[in-house]
Design goal:
Strand content: under 5%
Mean pLDDT: 77
Largest sheet: none
Low-confidence stretches: 1-15
Structural class: mainly alpha
Order of helices and strands: HHHHHHH
């Protein structure tokens, strides 16, 4: 369990001006990449690009939520992280379902479009991940932002390899395999975020109880001291 100094440091960093500025930059990058990658993914018939575009959309929404709760109490940041973790997990399930469906269609994606957009997305997500690296050890809300950025960068590398695989084999299987891997990343990342957020919510609920217990003990000690110093029946 984190000590008081670590909790205070995380709260301070969450309200820090650098944290908010980083989130605004990440929000703009992810919103722009979502629109561009979705259009190209639909045009190129790439399941991996569409999955990555949905991930950009989820991240943009997550950054917007993080900006809304930055500087708030731990309980509100943990609740926002719960929403983000659930969203990430649901996106992963959606991608997994659409990938299974795409297995039966057998449409060959355009490898050159996949590779070009995949490289562009890798540069964008790599820049965001490096910018947010310093915040990775914060509370559940801050860690969720880092996990999303890390998963995106890993996914982009996989998309580039998938493009090479589609080009080399002439089959859609590399594209579908990468989409499945990205779905698994989303599901596991969402689970990690939800688990930490639930732990922080539990700590926030225990804090008032611990304060009350401390107050009761302090009152009992004072009463005992008073009884010793001023015993009943003395004038």
């Amino acid at each position: 369990m984190a000590g008081c100094g670590e909790c205070c440091a995380a709260t301070h960093a969450s309200s820090d001006r650098r944290w908010r500025r980083a989130l605004w930059i990440a929000l703009g990058i992810n919103a722009g990449m979502f629109a561009g990658e979705m259009v190209v993914g639909l045009t190129a018939n790439s399941q991996a690009l569409q999955a990555d575009a949905l991930d950009f959309f989820g991240d943009a929404a997550n950054y917007a939520i993080s900006l809304g709760v930055a500087g708030m109490a731990l309980v509100w940041r943990a609740r926002a992280a719960l929403v983000k973790g659930a969203t990430l997990g649901l996106l992963g399930l959606y991608v997994m379902a659409t990938t299974i469906w795409a297995v039966w269609s057998g449409i060959l994606p355009r490898a050159e479009w996949m590779g070009g957009v995949g490289l562009l997305a890798l540069v964008a997500n790599g820049a965001v991940a490096l910018m947010l690296y310093r915040f990775r050890a914060g509370d559940a809300n801050m860690r969720s932002v880092w996990i999303c950025s890390r998963n995106d960068a890993i996914g982009n590398v996989a998309v580039v390899f998938a493009a090479a695989g589609v080009f080399g084999t002439g089959t859609p299987w590399p594209d579908l395999i990468v989409a499945g891997v990205m779905a698994a990343l989303g599901i596991t990342g969402g689970f990690q975020i939800v688990r930490q957020a639930r732990a922080e919510l539990a700590r926030s609920r225990m804090a008032p109880m611990q304060q009350d217990e401390h107050l009761i003990r302090s009152t009992g000690v004072k009463h005992t001291i008073r009884s010793i110093v001023y015993p009943s029946g003395t004038s």
